[in-house]
Hints:
The chain is of the alpha/beta class. Strands 14-13-12-15-20-16-21-22 form an eight-stranded mixed sheet, sandwiched between helices. The model is unreliable at about 25-65 (pLDDT under 50). Helix 13 packs across helix 14 (about 395-410). It starts with a helix and ends in a 22-residue tail after the last strand. The chain is elongated and about 140 Å long. The chain is built from 21 helices and 22 strands.
Amino acid sequence: xxxxxxxxxxxxxxxxxxIVYFGSKSDRKHGxxxxxxxxxxxxxxxxxxxxxxxxxxxxxxxxxxDFKSGKCRMDTCFDFSRCVRGFKVYVYPVLERVSESYSxxxxxxxxxxxxxxxxxxxxxxxxxxxxxxxxxxxxxxxxNIMPKIAHLxxxxxxxxxxxxxxxxxxxxxxxxxxxxxxxxxAIMARASISESRFRPNFDISLPxxxxxxxxxxxxxxxxxxxxxxxxPLRHYLLGFKGKRYLTGVGSETRNSLYHMHNGDxxxxxxxxxxxxxxxxxAKELNDTRCDIDNREFDRxxxxxxxxxxxxxxVPRGRRLGSFRxxxxxxxxxxxxxxxxxxxxxxxxxxxxxxxxVWADERLLFQVPSIVHGLSQPEIFAMRxxxxxxxxxxxxxxxxxxxxxxxxxxxxxxxxxSRNSVHWNNFPGALSLLPEYSDVxxxxxxxxxxxxxxxxxxxxxxxxxxxxxxxxxAPLFRLIRTVAKSTFVQKIVVIWNCDTPPPPSYQxxxxxxxxxxVKTKILRSVSARFYPYEEIETxxxxxxxxxxxxxxxxxxxxxxxxxxFPERIVGYPARNHFWDEAKNxxxxxxxxxxxxxxxxxSGAIYNRYYNFLYFNTLRPAAYHIVERLQNCEDILMNFIVxxxxxxxxxxxxxxxxxxxxxxxxxxxxxxxYYQTRFKQRQGCVASLTEIFGYMPLVRSRxxxxxxxxKDPVSNLRKKYRQLEVI
Length: 725
């Protein structure tokens, strides 16, 4: 008996020793696994340049750094003192090949009004290192980022005041959001970012965009290009066509969509026919739906489904974001989002409740009842909002990057920041400069929305370039004509002549209105559009010194402008056309039944456009005008049409609106006018390239007074002088 007990004791002791020995080895292996996970969780460098995290001190430093950057806000990780001299953006010199998308980002910033080549005056810094795609399997994956950042020296400053752009993070199989390099305290502009990793009012969420997105301009919203947009409901209620993942991240939702597909008003199509070994995987997983899904998938054209669906399902893919989000916006199809935890693009400023529907991935089968529950007025309003958001912020890389810059600028200059109304109403925050006014109804686009009535006066701006030799000079005659108007508040003469202006006693007297002469502000044709402080009225009537307009014409144009305060209203009209021989847009002065420009030698418009002319222009557009001393009127039409998406308005039927020749302004070169005309043709082509698209809109409308040219007594007509034109 005692022998049995001793034997049992020895066996138990041996087992315990065995467990202790192999358990300690297992713990050591487990520690190695934990350490490996820690390296993935808190990366400092990419795999090929990993930092040794074996010591507890190194691990604590890595965790502490990640924790600090995760708590970054503008007041803790941004140096506002660098922005005291203005909001300027510096791009590091590009020393290596970058992807097509990142090249568009750099070009957009370099063409921006905020760009500077001097890092000492910069408020914001942009890396020349391509950080867009951090999928190690991608051909656009940039290696050895940390050593390259180290070469930036003191300017990097642990990422302070830097914006780092990223579209793709992580790789198969987990597609982790954790980047493989240390971003320090940089602002992250990222696509597919989750709410848990997003730092509010510091990071910026981007849309997922492909390399086909144009650098400038971009495709118009489908509702604006299609003929009939009413009724708001389309042929399909809900549509989707895309990949189905058999396993892994993002597979759960897409694998369940076939349950809602009815082939009638709800068409949700998926295919597992992608990747090299999809058939093998389907066979291994015993997925019997692949063949059925593929046959149904091939029956529908994606574009037709997209443009004929009222709602478009936007489920998450391998990452939270999806290319279908922007595709749905452009098509005027209301996105139905199935991506729990996704921080929507520019969600800091855009109210997505007005344009998209949130659904829960866990409650997938509630989607049909959600979309059925929206009324037709709600649907139509949301579809209109998708078009506005697409054209204002997402139609090109230029719009996306400038939106990023404007968001950061609003944070830096909070006293000039735009509110939700600016961002979520036409024409959008990129066209509304807060420096102009802090009162919304002073912007022409908001006149009707706020029932604002502009003042009943205008300021006449007369552009003078020739010396005045006689009291009967065209300039003085025009001043007397303008002064007879009951609506003019003051006359501002822009003196752009080599000889000094006449002394004050020679100017017309007893006019009842002040005359201001500007001589030293800006020696340029653009001086006529300078936002002078003396212009206090909403309306600005811009005139050339040799204009032949009568007082009745001035009054009538002003009355028409009061009805259309967001447009240019005037007399001399021109048009643009596509020149097949040059394969470019061109300019014509032919007398046609349609027009797209009203020249500012006799036009009235809102003074806000003067502010836009000098504060939003890309430097390249302004340089064209300065180099040629020509085309400033064409550029103003481009600006106004770009903002309003509307044509100008021509009034009455006047062919000749200016003197044929002024004294002292003789032209010795017989080819002068032909050269000037060719310059204007070239301007239209160049400005179209700078804007990225043709913003001018054609019109066949003309505003005439009541009873104009009617065979009735002249006493019954209000604008009698118009009859003798």
